[in-house]
Amino acid sequence: MPLEQQQQPPPSPRDAESTARPRSVQDLLAELVVDGPARQVADLGAGSGPTLVEIARRSPGSRLTAVDVDEAALGRLALRLPTARIVRHDLAEPLTLAEGSLDVVVSHNTLECLADPAALLGEVARVLRPGGRAVLGHTDFDTIVVTTSDRDLARRVLRTYAELPVPYPHMAATDPQTGRRLAGLVRRGPLRLDTVHAHTTVIPTLPEALAHRLREVHTAVRRCAARGRGEVTPAEADAWCDELYAAEATGDFLFSETAFLVTAHRPA
Asked: Do residues 250 and 11 make contact, with C-beta atoms less than 8 angstroms apart?
């Protein structure tokens, strides 16, 4: 049965576990951004602004610039952060930001979408001031784990989502292992790699996991299946949803995913 037709399960004792969450990946990104001069900060692929919101909370004096090609997402960001500078721009093209104008560039879950991510890293180095910092993160979509009884079906669903044979709009490429390849990509470019971090999101309850990732997984996989792409049929995608609810009912449900984050700087 599709997710939107499923009823939410009644609260269970395990729901209490979700009241005290570890810091999110946006928390860690923001902490790395403000761990040094951050007067001028740009988020490349800012989306609706989850990372910039956390940066603004920690560093109210920072001047924030949001860059994205998605006009609707930027509209939502403008409502959340009215003082942010909004730049609608295709990141496959050279940035319109001035050379040496930024203290920090942050970008999360963006490089995978580009046919030439190395070109964007070159642009990041250009717009940073000498000594300026880059904070780059990416979920490694091959690390997603979900506990269900049908392991083969779960593997095929998650591989389809990771490979995403029917990409989202504005995606010129897909690479589910961009997270683990991020440090190497930076090492081969003009920036100097400073640190590498791993952040694992662990969610023990289905309602929260649906909101965080799994509803998107079902939608994306079913879209691929409807076009005959990927490793499952539409019926199997819906059967996987039933598996999620069954695992929640028996207390076996668990979700996790890992993102990798790197910090780097432009040589002085």
From this structure: no
pLDDT in tens, 236-264: 999 999 999 999 999 999 999 999 999 99
Report the alpha-carbon distance of residue 34 to residue 67 in Å, rounded.
Answer: 19
Q: What is the CA radius of gyration of the chain?
A: 19
Residues comprising the chain, all counted: 268
Total-model pTM: 0.90
Provide CB contacts within 8 A for 124, sequence distance 6+: 44, 105, 107, 134, 191
User: What tokens does 88 get?
Assistant: 């609608």
Q: Assign domain 3-265 one CATH number from 3.40.50.150, 3.50.30.20, 3.40.50.720, 3.90.550.10.
A: 3.40.50.150
Q: Give the residue among 157, 196, 191 at the shortest CA–CA distance from 180.
A: 196
| Burial class of residue 83 (count of CB atoms within 10 Å of its CB; 0-12, 13-18, 19+) | exposed
